[in-house]
Amino acid sequence: MVKTQTLSFPIRVPDGMQAQALRLLDASRLAINQIITTLWPQLDAFAGERAGPAWKQVERHLLIRSGHGNRQERCEMEQAGRILRAQASRKRVFEAIVPLLSEGLIIPAQGKRPARKDHRQINEQVRTSRAQLQDAGEDAEAFVAMTNLMAQACNWYLQTGAFPSTYEALQPVPVLSVGHLTFAGDDGMKAEQTYRARIELAPGCDLESRQERQLASLSLRLRTPDDQGKWSWGAWSQAIALPPAVCASLAQGALPQAPTLREIRGDDGSRVAVLDLTLEVPARYVSPLEQETRVLGWDWGVRSLITVSILQRPEEGDEERSRQVSRPVFLDTGGIDGRQARLRREIDRLKACRDRYGQFVKEAQAAHQEHGVPLPAHLAGWQQRVREYDARISQCWKSYERRNRELAHLASNLLILLALLSDCRLICGEDLRTLKTQGRGRGVRGRFRNWRNNTTVRGELWRVLKYKCHLLGIRARQVEARGTTHTCPRCGEPAKTYASAAPEDRTQAISWGPMLCCSNPECLWKGARDYAASLNIARLGMAFLLTYQQTRRYESYRVTSLEVNSCLYSGQEATLLLPSQGITPRPREGKHVYYAGWSYTIALRTSQPREVLAILSTSHLRKDVLSSA
């Protein structure tokens, strides 16, 4: 059986079909919302066995149909069934945290400061519960949404004065606000009864490189309702030129799957229909774990985006201690962090202005209804300003999320690049999905670091890294993060962090200090806490690897486990398998050093020689290594 990975590529529907596609999305959205609302009281029925398509599970419980045709109804039921299945999983998590809900999770009001959630207690409850689940042999990874649900339950308590007893009371019915329709309930691109599609391949030539390549185009035909609600087939669209990434995947043998039609709404209220073209592309097989000898560990840093270290499996006679074979690599995104922090401050300013004019509108309408005071002449202007501020806030959030996605792709590409250059097929990173950075930090920098840590790391970075590793035949594994930043990687003893390694700065430990210093008189290791954390994460990955090679069992460890051995450093082996570039990269001169191929606001730092770092930073190297993986 061929190993594959599913990728999705958004394609804008041609202008001539926009009206038809939007009518189809409107009709299907109403039908999907009706199904979700009808079956919401039977949510427990979707928490059991999930083998087979979701529409078959919905069909067993649905009594009233939309009347849009059998195949169109299947697609609508498939979309509704996927939503109900996800909500049923979330309900199971809620039932697991109900015994943990108590007033101890709420900090009482103090003076002018209102009551609020106690995030430290919430995190402690989640960590304790996950540890109990792991000790009992249950799947603790199924409860990664505990923190969010506990916070949501606490918000409910702050509003009503009591914790919710059922999930249905906490969660409103999750109806769609924009059109979103999958065609997975139909039978194929050529014989389907809800849509038809043709993908045509033709030879072409790239004008810049003058190299021959495959060109692909898509023709689309939809079954949509007209203005009177009568369903019929429309005409074939004009040929849609597909992007180079899709053409390259089709040339490599990718198979088209059922696409998804969805709606994108602009800040000005405009609506655009987009077709997500789904391809099942071939992926590389992962090499057996018996053949692996190296582990790459990466840490989500406090001051740098990621820190990377690589360990080598211990050889015979090395006292079972792993050996570090790479110098640490730090990805510093200070420039982009500054832009994101300024954007967050702008969002806060816009929200304050919007709330101010919104309060004016609310007071004027209340005075008119209660006391008959005439509406002021400026009411229409105030309402217009509220709408304008909402539009600007939406634009800022889109820019913020777009930069987060760029950072996720940048970090994942660097991790894969370093793994391939070091002949490593096992990447281990900390699991921070249920941990949350608390406090405002020291100044604006600390406040933004909390924002960044609580947004980017949980979703986008791991999502991008996992599918890219799957395509290239690399294992991506999450390990327990607790204790990795306060443990010495050389001796394995607990260590404290300080403002710096200087003796005058080591009089008082700081929980978020940048430097880790071991107090063991036989060790006295000193280094950046992010560097130490990356080594400890690699140690956890090495313990997993050695356990499998010895027992053929998959075991997860904590940094305090006896199976996790310390590591040594070997400078003579700290080399990268860099291919010849045929160019001489020139790093820019100045206080901050930036290298070719990286964004101006990105800095790549390591203890490798400057020549090696300059070659590592070139875009030619990244393209050659990733394409030849």
UniProtKB/TrEMBL annotation:
It holds the Pfam family Cas12f1-like_TNB. InterPro entries: Cas12f1-like_TNB (IPR010095). Keywords: DNA-binding. This is Transposase IS605 OrfB. Residues 460-537 form the Cas12f1-like TNB domain. The lineage of its organism: Bacteria, Bacillati, Chloroflexota, Ktedonobacteria, Ktedonobacterales. GO terms for molecular function: DNA binding.
